[in-house]
Amino acid sequence: MVPSTLGAWLGEVAEPDPIETERSMMTTTIRRSGNARIKGAAAIAAIAMLGGLLAGCSSDDNGDAEATPTPEATATEETPPTGELATFTRTDISDSGANFVLIENPCGGPRLTFAADSGIEVLTEVDGDCEFAFLDFNDSGSLDPAEDWRLPARERAEALAPQLTIEQIAGLMLFSPHAQHGDGFTEEQQEWISENFMRNVLNSGPSDTNSIVPWVNAMQAYAQGARNADEPWIPVNFASDPRSAAGATLYNAPGAISRWPSSTGLAATFNIDWMTAFAEAASAEYRALGITTALSPQIDLATDPRWARVDDTMGEDATWAGELTAAYVRGFQYEPGTTEWGPNSVATMIKHLGGDGANEGGRIAHQPTGAYAVHPGGGFETRMSVFYAGLESAGMMSGFPIMLDGEGHPLFGYELSGSFDPGLMNMLRNEWNWEGVLVTDWWVTRDHDTWMFTGHGTQDMTIPERVLLQLFNGTDQFGGDSDMGPINEAFDLWQAAYEAGEFPIDAETRWQETGVRVLDMYFKLGLFENPFLVLEESLAIVGSDDKQAMGNQAQLESVIMLRNVDGTISPSTLADFADLTVYVPWTKTVSHPGPWGAGGDVSNQMTLEMEILEQFFANVITDELVWETTIVEAEDEDGEDEEIETLVDIIAPDLSEVDIVLVGMRSPFNGGQFGFAGFDPINEVYIPISLQWGPYVADGPYVRRTSISGHLQADGTRENRSYFGNAARISNRADIEAFDRAVAAVAATGRDIPVITILQAQQPVVPTEIYEDSDAIVVGFGISQQALLEIALGLHEPMGRLPITFPADMDAVERQYEDVADTDPFIDSHGNAWGFGFGLNFSGPIG
């Protein structure tokens, strides 16, 4: 039975009064129809009312859009025919975590690998002067279209999808929770494969080649062994979030994957070739680690400088971000210099459709406190233009936020997040005619009373109803889900709705649409031909010298110099510092309250790492730390007392013999991606996100007294999420204390010791606290301290420029609109505006 009827739902929700606005660039129509919400058992009929939005409304509709060129693994003759038959070779591999067979095809044909005990037979076919091998993975004894790697991926996918069971397709819709490989192929992971038919696994473990390769091979062998006459073999698609950003230490850890700037750092190079070089190098390393899908790039436009994920974006400018997105997608997916998929190809998954980053107040949509993106500046079309530039991507991920206009009305008429929003999905599937694989961001289907509930607006729906609505909208996969039960329940709901005349196609047809899209990507990647890894080959590829050298150079070219008084930073060599003494102060971080605890934990560290400093200087001095010891008596007489040491004071040393002062700083930290940035969970009040280190109370003239967003109340009014009058909470406030302590210690000497500020940025900062007392300022996004130091010491000329504006003050931050890049920039003493594209080299402003 269908849980409700169209008439019943229409009785609950008033008939919309659409207001249409034509979007000229992408012919997107935004429909605003009040604050309708799909509730509980009314979900099916609500979906039925939206029948026209279904992607692929008939069984023979596979999309009419012109496909992105994706030549498959075709054989090409490398030499003219000679009359001699070139044939394949076969090798047994036993030292890579699984026993498997490796076949090298002649004449440019693809490599084949399969588990030695899988029972898969090898089929052969002579084509001209070449004898090719194929895998008979359905045990038919003949070469079927799905097994013929010479055919286009789409044709193979359309041949295989009808052979899969509904449960197998349900498994293709699952995308695992974060999976680790340190303990090998675990029992839980085996259940994913065998019991739930899952074939998409998120590898969240470290880039340890010796650990990953056996894990990947063991899982692929297990998946091959799970096939039977009724359930054809489907390989495992391993995915990863970005894992190549350098972080805050050395260029590269020994044996690790090559390290590059973050996406924002690559944007700061203002050189598209660096994005292409990164993508090509990273895709080769990913494939050597068995990773075939990149859950990236994140192309949300960084229009609000407060948002905690700025450093994962490509900056604030839509045109530049669009060019970088296209280069990233092509560099990962295609063989270098071509538009052809090959053995180094990795499918990209641009994210997050709808455009995260315009969340009111800069909050994070991973929590209900950041559930709403607002568009008071009318910037939705500009934000979507970056996604439009990336439509060659094989995959896409929808976002968490509910999208509102500047008056608090849903942009498309329904107060639903991301993949639940029919209007947004209609734009993607029907207006843009995009036919790739659409996955939800993680955990959108879970129960609303669990940690990290992200299905905003669906609190009154059951899990199967959430699955149903998203599938109706064109979603293919569910991030973080490992249980196919709700998908099977959604199948029954769909079929009942179809039989009642409420849905336009039957459930099996809709499930097969997803099957074709997912398999199409698998075939493009060559997963059915070569799912296994050879450890020796992977070790040679991951972190190879050439990739590390390129990543190091990209880091250097991404560093931005913003201030340089009287040539404080000038061309130098290592020898210039070999006999010098440097002072670097100490800082601390106090953890925020969040899902993992009440906060208050303190960590202490130098602002720059001693290991790196000792590469450049003869002597490194730092602060004196004053500790206080507290004895905590044991609870019983058999226990031992505990000594707890607390840092109570930090004292700068005498700098009379110091030659240079380096102060490492981090962007003010208000709470991260999985915390409560902009919200105080203890007092349950909203608080401002500050881009200055010192105290900030949001009582200025531009702070909203009434928020645009907020949950709808029972009386029809909206919750007020204003933080007016409240104070910000900064974890690393000690960074500015360290800076001030260093400046005071220099002044106490009466000497002119240069102070160079080195900012490891995750977001823009308000520079007023550090500008006047810094002789030089350098900034890096997602790069190593080593690269920052080499620029700060003049070993390389700065070349980077700001990909995002540094605000004049917190009034400028409060005055800007979340959805457009309109922040007033800081103006320095030379009249330079620290906005998009500004940076200095040794001669002055660049360009």
Q: How would you sum up the major sheet?
A: 7 strands, parallel
Beta-strand residue percentage: 15-25%
Any idea what the radius of gyration is?
A: 28 Å
How far apart are the first and last residues' alpha carbons, in Å?
Answer: 67 Å
Bulk shape:
globular
Say how many strands there are. 32
- Spatial strand sequence of the major β-sheet: 9-10-11-12-13-15-17
Describe the protein's architecture and organization.
The protein is of the alpha/beta class. Helices cover 25% and strands 17% of the residues. It has 20 helices and 32 strands. It has a seven-stranded parallel beta sheet with strand order 9-10-11-12-13-15-17. Strands 19-30-29-26-20-23 form a six-stranded mixed beta sheet, sandwiched between helices. A hairpin with a 6-residue loop joins strand 4 (100-104) and strand 5. Helix 4 crosses helix 14, helix 8 runs antiparallel to helix 15 (535-541) and helix 8 (272-288) packs antiparallel against helix 16. Residues 1-41 and 51-80 have low confidence and may be disordered.
List keywords for this structure.
single chain, 847 residues, alpha/beta, 7-stranded parallel sheet, 6-stranded mixed sheet, 32 strands, globular, disordered N terminus
Write the layout of secondary structure elements.
Blueprint: H1 6-12, E1 19-23, E2 28-32, H2 43-49, E3 89-93, E4 100-104, E5 111-115, E6 121-127, E7 130-136, H3 153-160, H4 166-173, E8 174-175, E9 178-179, H5 187-194, E10 200-203, H6 209-225, E11 237-240, H7 263-268, H8 272-288, E12 291-294, H9 318-333, E13 347-353, E14 372-375, H10 380-389, E15 395-398, E16 402-405, H11 422-431, E17 437-439, H12 463-473, E18 478-479, H13 485-499, H14 507-525, H15 535-541, H16 545-558, E19 560-564, E20 581-583, E21 586-590, E22 602-606, H17 610-613, E23 619-621, E24 624-632, E25 642-651, E26 660-666, E27 679-680, E28 685-686, H18 734-749, E29 755-761, E30 776-781, H19 785-792, H20 810-815, E31 840-841, E32 844-845
